[in-house]
Automatic annotation (TrEMBL):
Secretion signal span: none
KW Transferase (keyword) present: yes
Binding site for ATP: K52
Region (Disordered): 306-327
Protein name in UniProt: non-specific serine/threonine protein kinase
EC assignment: 2.7.11.1
Top-level taxon in the UniProt lineage: Bacteria
Length: 327
């Protein structure tokens, strides 16, 4: 349909100022393999949103449409501080779209590209927020399937104890498990293969533990500066995820504490049964087995009420906020 093509594949500037499904397009934020994301104005509610327009070919794929509808409903129903709130998902003129909260900041892909490897405390702080979002989704029966730096949005945090606020986005938007490995009709893979779990590759059933694997790949890259596997071509990379052992992260980062290699070995296990049961269990072990966080004021008030106050709040444990460097 000519209209589809003009909505999606027109040059970005052609859409600026246009209205789509009650949103006025203001600016292009970014584009991935199967979608373009715009900053837009919601004319009904008079607010700024991020409007994602999916490639028209996806609307023609029945499997994708069904899962898109189902999973955007489930994602919209999850009210979680680290999941991007979805305001509306629908279809207009053959193009699927999602309106969601506009997150001002960067995504982890850009952050890593710009800053290189992160300090362990920073990587752990970001991973903890993503892990809590993933575990909440899993409790709702939703598996993300496409955990990767581009789907982790990093905004300014609230204070020096929480220098970044991290949001996970794009539930159910992966094309990877639609067919064997997500190759399009022209044989090109949509998206990256750096974070895909062995069971996704072999077409076995997936559960939350495939997101444990994906998250572990992301945190590995955040620390080592490269994902666990690097190969010359896609088939070799798929093979590596299924059969090769990743190099110890300490090979790239000699400054990390000794327990870290063992934690990644378990989180990146080939069989889901050998991995951590949850994403937070993985991150807790990464932190050295120390669960939780420094008490917030609210926690402290509860603690005082119960007579368990253990003194003043701890000073920020991790001094180096990344957000200041995001620009
Ligand atoms: N709610 C949002 N607020 C602000 N920026 C966003 C939001 N959602 C996505 N973005 C930005 O839009 C860009 C494009 O996102 P998109 O999901 O299309 O691609 P991707 O996740 O990078 O790659 P892929 O196509 O492989 O999924 C991302 O880099 C992200 O920074
Ligand atoms: Mg994305």
């Amino acid at each position: 349909m000519a209209r589809d093509a003009s909505l999606f594949s027109g040059r970005p500037s052609e859409l600026i100022g246009q209205q789509i499904a009650g949103y006025r397009i203001e600016d292009e934020i970014g584009r991935g393999g199967m979608a373009v994301v715009y900053r837009a104005h919601d004319l009904r509610l008079d607010r700024t949103v991020a409007l994602k327009l999916l490639a028209p070919e996806l609307a023609r794929n029945d499997t994708f449409r069904k899962r898109f509808t189902h999973e955007s409903r489930v994602a919209a129903a999850i009210d979680h501080p680290h999941i991007v709130p979805v305001f509306e998902a629908g279809e207009t003129d053959g193009v699927l779209y999602i309106a969601m909260r506009y997150v001002s900041g960067s995504d982890l892909r850009h952050l890593l590209d710009r800053e290189g490897p992160l300090a362990l405390p920073t990587a752990v702080r970001i991973a903890t927020q993503v892990a809590s979002a993933l575990d909440a989704a899993h409790e709702h029966g939703l598996v993300h399937r496409d955990v990767k730096p581009g789907n982790i949005l990093v905004a300014r945090g609230t204070d020096s104890d929480h220098p970044e606020h991290v949001y996970l986005t794009d539930f159910g938007l992966t094309k990877k498990s639609l067919s064997l490995t997500g190759f399009t009709t022209v044989g090109q893979f949509v998206g990256t293969l750096d974070y895909v779990a062995p069971e996704q590759i072999s077409g076995r059933p997936v559960d939350g533990r495939c997101d444990v694997y994906g998250l572990a790949c992301v945190v590995y890259e955040s620390l080592a500066g490269r994902p666990p596997f690097r190969r010359d071509d896609d088939m070799a990379l798929l093979w590596a995820h299924q059969y090769d052992l990743p190099p110890a992260v300490s090979e790239a980062r000699g400054d990390l504490p000794g327990h870290v290699d063992g934690v990644f070995a378990k989180a990146l296990a080939k069989s889901p049964d050998d991995r951590y049961e949850s994403c937070l269990a993985f991150v807790t072990e990464l932190r050295g087995g120390v669960a939780g966080h420094a008490p917030t004021e609210v926690d402290r008030r509860v603690a005082v009420a119960r007579g368990r106050d253990e003194g003043p709040p701890a000073p920020p444990r991790w001094a180096e906020p990344v957000f200041r460097r995001l620009g």
